[in-house]
């Protein structure tokens, strides 16, 4: 073997990732360089000669971003430790926004083991939405659990806010990101708090109603707006006031506005509209009484980017329903509502006392209106949701595998009673950190 061939056979090649800070490190990527270069390290750190060669392969920035953006969020969280450059890239606002936009919507199932059970714990599951509208089963995986959370059944309604989820636990307000595992808890001055997101300023804010809902004839209402920063700390607090009203439902954030049902003096039903960006009560939207027929049991949904309410038309004593009205706020400025009535192929339970109530908390990408249980039973049973297509009037039952449907799961986490549950059909993974 010649000397040159012997030297070549003993060479070691190492692939290294491209430096990602392009502002600091400009690289020549002309075809002549073939996106790689060889460094002949003729001496090691002790000054001893070495025949080792290192082959540095530089991947174009766009290719590296395209590769990382395809990975699950939990994998990216592990990659934060690979290098400072990868950590900077993954945490950059540009990459976070691109990741959120590229990911398809998922569904989440959340429930708590209630007030009377020990240990108290909040469970968050998620899974991929169906590719076709004919799926009969989906799989949910347990993303995270949060200990020491006590929630009552009536107030347990979740929705996804730009990849984050939030819930009131008395005076505690809990915000979590199932993708990153981040959990933030801070204390509020009152129990009525909801999470909002300003898509223009990329800013999360929490709105708290300080005036008690039990106050008699207040002359005005006082609210506190908390602007949230890194680490979940409160960057600023602002107090705003509005004319008096009595809140009826929890808030829901849709396209930069928080909506919740209320009644103003003379028992007139309205929806309060809070502008997250400008931190002001934008308006009281007059609402037909039928929209809030079920009062606190009313479920607000995001229907094609608009506020909507599904109102079940119950049979007999209200134990079930086979029809419902869909009320849609067509124009916020003109305060115009539309109404559509749909008939279901089969009846769904609406028995509040027995914990078998089916409610709707949204639609999927295909526009199907989804009905899900408000509670889980006290024994292992399959978890079913119903998908109704308002165009074809067809409905299908879909089983969600993995949601407390085995005796092993129930015994492992001490689930011995009825659990308050919530199904959110339009959650998108986010790798953002508060």
From TrEMBL:
Region Disordered, annotated ranges: 1-47
Family annotation (NCBIfam families): F_box_assoc_1
Organism, as annotated: Raphanus sativus
Xref: InterPro entries: F-box-assoc_dom_typ3, F-box-assoc_interact_dom, F-box-like_dom_sf, F-box_dom
Domain named F-box associated beta-propeller type: residues: 120-408
Taxonomic superkingdom: Eukaryota
Name of this protein: F-box protein At1g30790-like
UniProt cross-references to SUPFAM superfamilies, sorted A to Z: F-box domain
Biased composition (Basic and acidic residues): 1-10, 28-47
Domain named F-box: residues: 60-95
